[in-house]
């Protein structure tokens, strides 16, 4: 397969965008990414989205976004893997360009969660779970993750407050990201006093409901070099699945799909977890961040929380995560988050992350999750010029 | 890109499957296709589906279907282009294998339309249209196509009864297909007396609501040869889009996306429309079949209906279409139909179409449409052994 680079990035702030439609949100990100890349007309568009059918009464987003972005006629598709849909769009665009189906593709993630009520959004998010074996029993998506967190605390002996550093780090990093939704730093006391959502998960363990869109332009490495764009290479790209129903896994506390997809992506890039300078992980809940760190090999089992408690996930630590706020504080417009992660990793690798910049970073990992560990897509991005 | 073949096909009958879940329907088709191919574990799965979020409260179908089909762990995605979603899944699987991302992929289309009431299904189908510029005015999906048919009759001087041959041919062919939903032949009189749905579209101009799933196993040509499977090659594969809102097109009666995608697919295959032995087109409404024939170059503009009136679309004609019943009479479980078309084309090319067999066919075209001409995917299939 061919060498592939990201040559353009675009994003809207994550917010409650009451004045912009789902489609227009996507158009803003796509146009920004094309402008950044200096490309007028890509050959393909992949749109990652989860909730538009339920909340915006709109499907067919591939053709719709392509047309409204001034790209009528190009090949376009929507891809869905629940909350990991944006990363799936990036993976499709990667495969199309690397495989030779086209030279330039755009991956866009978009979500307009405020098109429904919070109750409607909560019901729609539960569709990421197994409808017949989980949701039918009344389990919301938060509840499923609360069961995981409960078990984790039981198995490894942590207290709820030990998860604080994930949230505190995310809010700290979001405070200086103009595209972030929750820009106030929080204290340990605020975390401890945060109100319960589904015990033991509290408000400050959870990402919020928001609207947003992000996009990347993906091209052959050869074209990137010819255009003279800053080259961030997609060095590794992989996806893997697990059962959707959490109770059906041999080891519920081990995200095997995160393990498989990260190992594949690292192997493709020819590096190991120890070589990664920073990671944009799927911190939709603090327990999710902990389990991801462990499954990717950044911490031994049961030690993801310890890594955070030791300060290693901050921008000054050994493995900075959520460097621009993560899902927790940049915001989690679900189908868009996987693309936000890639956009932010490119910001870091290009040296365009402003006051959030990690000095001298060269290798970043992004990982997005659909369902409670059911579908996990990992990318390794590398700065080479 | 590499040579790609279809080495396995599977399908469930199209019906009202009250006793089977959405997921189990997909599993039946996937397992049948893998058995037919002699493959135990493909590397990737692409699921085409439109309505599960609205009607079955279930997303994340990639991971869900993979797991329930005994393929836990493999890479899996859902793809959506409204009623063309199944064809999009085939296109993704083609790109993955042709581009070298994997050697064996499964494309599955599934739809469980009876999980909702007919009213809910009608509302969900309208999400294929532009929510803000079409559906918001109360236009159902049938109504949009009725406007197209009205305009077509006005421009070209046809009467409603002239469209009869599309429906009569489809029902005739379905009558001997055990997987078809509507297996009774209809007469010209029945067509003329059929009750109106959205004037001028009548019940017998329209495909019905049904459940079903179809799947194909796609592999490298080299692997197909090594396995000794009957080789049906994907000689051409292409997608193209148009505006979603029909009023926004310069020529509403010309499906430009059908033109572009069919021309690209034919060019890739190195053939012309005149070389095609049969076509499985998107006859969701009889007007759609007429417009597709014209846009693909099988008939001049305004002559698609004339082609049908002349008997050329029957199994004895110059260009047989809907050879196993088409969307009209095999049934149109929307996100599955694009895969049913490919499965049926392979049946024809392998000589496995039973009493519907076209003697000596070598080149078939399948074309699936998402929205009223908005997203159109074309495949050219060729028998080479």
Biggest protein-protein interface? A-B, 63 and 63 residues
N-to-C series of helices and strands of chain A: EHEHHEHEHHHHEEEHEHEHHHHEE
Please tell me the CATH architecture of the largest domain in chain A by its name: 3-Layer(aba) Sandwich
Q: Strand order of the main beta sheet of chain A, please?
A: 3-2-4-7-1-8-11-10-9
Mean pLDDT of chain A: 97
Uncertain stretches of chain A:
none
CATH superfamily of the largest domain in chain A: Thiolase/Chalcone synthase
| Distance, first to last CA of chain A | 21 Å
Helix content of chain A: 25-40%
| Assembly category | homodimer
Instruction: Classify the beta-strand content of chain A into a percent band.
Output: 15-25%
Tally the helices of chain A: 14
Level-1 CATH class name of the largest domain in chain A: Alpha Beta
Number of domains of chain A: 2
> Radius of gyration of chain A over alpha carbons?
19 Å
Give a short account of the largest sheet of chain A: 9 strands, mixed
Q: Give the helix/strand class of chain A.
A: alpha/beta
Using DSSP, what is the number of strands of chain A? 11
Envelope shape of chain A: globular
């Amino acid at each position: 397969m061919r060498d592939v680079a990201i040559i353009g990035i675009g994003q809207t702030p994550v917010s409650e965008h009451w004045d912009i439609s789902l489609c227009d949100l996507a158009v803003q990100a796509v146009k920004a990414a094309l402008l950044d890349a200096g490309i007028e007309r890509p050959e393909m568009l992949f749109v990652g989205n989860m909730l538009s059918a339920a909340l915006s009464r709109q499907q067919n987003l591939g053709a719709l976004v392509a047309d409204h972005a001034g790209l009528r006629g190009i090949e376009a598709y929507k891809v869905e893997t629940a909350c990991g849909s944006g990363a799936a769009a990036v993976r499709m665009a990667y495969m199309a360009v690397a495989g030779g189906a086209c030279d330039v593709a755009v991956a866009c993630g978009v979500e307009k969660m405020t098109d429904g009520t919070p109750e409607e959004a909560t019901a729609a998010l539960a569709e990421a779970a197994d409808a017949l074996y989980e949701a039918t029993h009344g389990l919301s998506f938060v509840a499923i993750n609360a069961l995981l967190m409960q078990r984790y605390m039981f198995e490894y002996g942590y207290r709820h407050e030990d998860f604080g550093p994930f949230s505190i780090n995310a809010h700290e990093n979001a405070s200086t990201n103009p595209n972030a939704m929750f820009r106030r730093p929080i204290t340990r006391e605020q975390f401890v006093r945060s109100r319960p959502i589904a015990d033991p998960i509290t408000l400050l363990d959870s990402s919020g409901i928001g609207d947003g869109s992000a996009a990347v332009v993906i091209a052959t490495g050869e074209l990137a070099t010819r255009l003279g764009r800053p080259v961030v290479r997609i060095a590794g790209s992989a996806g893997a699945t697990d059962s959707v129903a959490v109770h059906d896994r041999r080891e519920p506390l081990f995200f095997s799909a995160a393990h498989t997809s990260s190992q594949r992506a690292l192997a493709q890039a020819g590096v190991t977890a120890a070589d990664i300078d920073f990671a944009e992980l799927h911190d939709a809940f603090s327990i999710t961040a902990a389990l991801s760190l462990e499954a990717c090999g950044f911490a031994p089992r049961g030690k993801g929380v310890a890594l955070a408690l030791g300060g290693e996930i901050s921008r000054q630590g050994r493995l900075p995560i959520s460097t621009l706020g993560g899902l927790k504080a940049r915001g989690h417009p679900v189908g868009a988050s996987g693309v936000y992660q890639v956009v932010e990793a490119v910001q870091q690798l290009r040296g365009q992350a402003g006051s959030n910049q990690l000095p001298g970073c060269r290798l970043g990992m992004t990982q997005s999750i659909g369902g409670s560990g059911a579908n996990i897509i990992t990318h390794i991005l590398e700065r080479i010029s």
